[in-house]
Amino acid sequence: MTREEAERALEAPGRKRLEAKERLRLADRELKPFVKQARKAGVPIRTIAAKTGLSANTISLWERD
């Protein structure tokens, strides 16, 4: 495989990954206020993590924002 072919091979999956990252960023923006509300209401971090796929560290950081 040539360098040009290798670069072309990266385009489609790379584009898919970038699009997925953008969708995830938007989902995080939508989810953040609900995570904060859940923590204020006493929902455990582990429960939020299990329901959202977020790490405990991310939940803790969002809680402080």
Radius of gyration: 18 Å
Please state the structural category.
Answer: mainly alpha
Total of DSSP H or I helical runs spanning 4+ residues = 3
| Principal-axis shape | elongated
Helix and strand sequence: HHH
How is the main sheet built?
A: none
Quaternary state of the chains? single chain
β-strand percent reads under 5%
Helix content: over 70%
Which stretches are low in confidence, meaning pLDDT under 50 for 5 or more residues running?
A: none
What does this protein look like?
This protein has 65 residues and is mainly α. The model has no long low-confidence stretch (mean pLDDT 97). The longest helix has 38 residues, at 3-40. It has three helices and no strands.
List descriptors.
single chain; 65 residues; mainly alpha
Can you give me a brief rundown of this structure?
The chain has 65 residues and is an all-alpha fold. It has helices spanning 3-40, 45-52, 56-64.
Secondary-structure map with pairings?
Elements: H1 3-40, H2 45-52, H3 56-64
Helix pairs in contact: 1-3
